[in-house]
Inverse folding.
């Protein structure tokens, strides 16, 4: 599946798999740090940005055990590049006769159901497509400057980056409908109340907190992290009995030697602690 996604990201809309200044990539130990690097455009998401992001996410899956996604400048992402959309909607724009899989879905699926967990570090505008990107991450950290919104309804468009599925499952239909119908914005604290984010930190502290969480996550076994990010969300779609069966299959799966070693270390530590009591 990952090989297919690699090919799709590399060929969608004719973009090549090459490095890009639109997205930065660095490593801190076994953590990949990916940054949206279009600060002058409030990190608006274009096809080129999404292609570069997909490339960085694939690289992170190969090289790291957990990842962080953040935005350079004053905002995480203000969402869809409306200038690019306007160009596509011009009466004289070329007609797309052969549809390829939507690059927003392809790229965000690489994050949500790829090989490693991701933490999103949010600040400033996290709006529209930017919020859909954040929702693809497994943990979201917002600093107190963050504002969340889904203004597509006021712009005559509909969510297109998987938000109708991911965001609705996080906050529920009623809250999402409110955001889309009214254009209402949520503060970081309000976002935490509706479970859109798990952590709220002081201004400027989101990236450090996200890195700390990613480092903690990276200490888990890769198999456990994969099960949490890929198996667990799928179980939410199953019936009660099928969910329990899926759980049994994953509990009975052959575990790597590291699991036995970790259990042994825990039991030895517990025995020593009881002996000292």
């Amino acid at each position: 599946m990952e090989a297919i996604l690699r090919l799709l990201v590399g060929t969608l809309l004719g973009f090549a798999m090459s490095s890009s200044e639109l997205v930065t990539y660095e490593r801190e130990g076994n953590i990949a740090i990916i940054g949206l690097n279009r600060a002058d455009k409030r990190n608006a998401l274009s096809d080129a940005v999404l292609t570069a992001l997909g490339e960085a996410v694939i690289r992170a899956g190969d090289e790291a055990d957990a990842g962080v996604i953040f935005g350079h400048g004053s905002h995480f992402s203000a969402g869809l590049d409306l200038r690019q959309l306007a160009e596509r909607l011009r009466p004289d724009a070329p007609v797309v006769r052969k549809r390829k899989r939507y690059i927003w879905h392809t790229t965000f699926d690489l994050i949500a159901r790829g090989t490693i967990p991701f933490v999103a570090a949010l600040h400033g505008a996290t709006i529209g497509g930017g919020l859909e990107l954040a929702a693809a991450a497994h943990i979201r950290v917002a600093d107190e400057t963050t504002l969340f919104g889904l203004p597509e309804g006021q712009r005559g468009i509909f969510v297109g980056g998987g938000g109708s599925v991911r965001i609705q499952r996080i906050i529920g239909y009623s809250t999402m409908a409110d955001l889309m119908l009214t254009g209402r914005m949520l503060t970081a604290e309000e976002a935490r109340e509706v479970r859109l984010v798990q952590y709220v930190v002081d201004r400027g502290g989101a990236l450090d907190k996200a890195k700390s969480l990613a480092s903690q996550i990276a200490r888990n076994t890769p198999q456990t992290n994969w099960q949490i990010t890929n198996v667990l969300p799928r179980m939410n779609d199953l019936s009660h009995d099928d969910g329990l069966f899926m759980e049994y299959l994953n509990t009975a799966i052959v575990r790597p030697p590291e699991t036995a070693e970790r259990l042994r270390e825990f039991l030895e530590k517990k025995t020593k602690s009881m002996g000292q009591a």
